[in-house]
Every structure is written in structure tokens, then in C-alpha cells.
Design brief:
- Helices cover about 35% and strands about 25% of the residues.
- The strands form 2 sheets. Strands 3-2-1-4-5-6-9 form a 7-stranded parallel β-sheet, with helices on both faces.
- Strand 5, helix 5 and strand 6 form a beta-alpha-beta unit.
- It starts with 5 loop residues before the first strand and ends in a 12-residue tail after the last strand.
């Protein structure tokens, strides 16, 4: 039996659904964490390598227990894609701890941290507790300028940008543009 790589996508049933499905098509066993059970089911019904996990990372103790159970059942995740709106230090710390317990202190893994357009990447890099066995990548979401108008990225554009970052093993990747800042939508 061929052992498949385990990918974990936190927040993977919404704007990262395309990336979750792509990882499954690449041969990963993909654990998708989301809060909406209907969206998780719809996504996971699309491919046998997708496994939905209903969890809310804002509930610290429950989320840590869910990660521990998940890594015990499915093995340590060698690739993590995380779209986290707040409290990223705690969530990434809990994820790293669950992977370390399941895989051992020397288990190498990649984290693709998806961040909003106004995020300060250098500050986040200083604050996020990235263990030495983790290769940390940042994917920053920008916007699109079309003629004299601008718009936020679509879910497909976001997923495609994350996939491009993973394929090219980039440490930092901007999806869309961040400049000129005053042209961003709604401003």
C-alpha cells in the first residue's frame, strides 16, 4: 500500500475549497477544517481523499483536542494551509504541537499561511511560533485592478494563488496586487 501525504487545510471549505480539492487531486489525503458542516460535506463529496472536520479555531481547547485526534487518526500533516482571521499565534502553535506529537520533533512540514491585504508580513513572521522543522511560507491576498475600477479576489483566484505558491515553493507570494494601495476596493 502506498502511503499518501497528509495535508491539512484550516478554513478550507470556503475560499480555499479549490486548493483543498487540488491537493486531493495531487494525491494528498486532505483534512479540511471548517465551521460550516454543509460546505464541508459538499466539498468532501467531490473527492475520496477529502476528509471534513468541523471545528472552530476560536475555541482553543476544543480546537487543540480536534487537532490531536486528527493527527493521531490520519498521521502528521506534512503540508498545512491556514487561513486564520485572528489569534494566529495560538492556532499555529497548536497546529505545530499536534504535528510534533504525531510526527516527532524532526518531522519536516510546510506551512502556507494565508494573510489579508493589510497584514504586516515581517511583523507576523516575528510573532508566529514557527518551529525549526517547519518551512514557513506567506501568501498575501491583494486585489485586482480592472481599468479604472478595482475588486477583491475571487475564491478561484485565491485558491489558484495558493496553489502557485505551493507548486513553486515560494516563501512569500502576493496574489493579485497591493499597489497602488489607495486603489483597493471600497477606498
Amino acid at each position: 500500500m502506498v502511503e499518501r501525504k497528509h495535508a491539512l487545510v484550516i478554513g478550507g471549505s470556503g475560499m480555499l475549497a479549490g486548493a483543498s480539492l487540488w491537493l486531493a487531486r495531487q494525491g494528498h489525503q486532505v483534512s479540511v477544517i471548517g465551521r460550516n458542516t454543509q460546505k464541508l460535506k459538499r466539498l468532501c463529496d467531490q473527492h475520496p481523499y477529502l476528509y471534513g472536520v468541523s471545528a472552530d479555531y476560536s475555541r482553543a481547547a476544543e480546537f487543540a483536542a480536534t487537532l490531536g485526534d486528527l493527527m493521531e487518526k490520519r498521521g502528521p500533516a506534512n503540508l498545512v494551509v491556514a487561513w486564520i482571521h485572528d489569534d494566529e499565534e495560538r492556532v499555529i502553535g497548536q497546529t505545530a504541537e499536534a504535528i510534533r506529537i504525531a510526527g516527532g520533533a524532526d518531522f519536516a512540514w510546510d506551512l502556507y499561511h494565508v494573510l489579508g491585504s493589510s497584514s504586516n508580513l515581517d511583523e507576523i513572521l516575528r510573532k508566529v511560533p514557527v518551529p525549526p522543522e517547519c518551512a514557513y511560507h506567506q501568501v498575501q491576498l491583494g486585489f485586482v485592478i480592472e481599468g479604472d475600477r478595482s475588486r477583491w479576489l475571487t475564491h478561484d483566484e485565491i485558491s489558484n494563488g495558493v496553489m502557485e505558491c505551493i507548486e513553486n515553493n515560494r516563501r512569500r507570494h502576493v496574489v493579485g496586487t497591493l499597489e497602488p494601495w489607495e486603489k483597493r476596493p471600497g477606498y
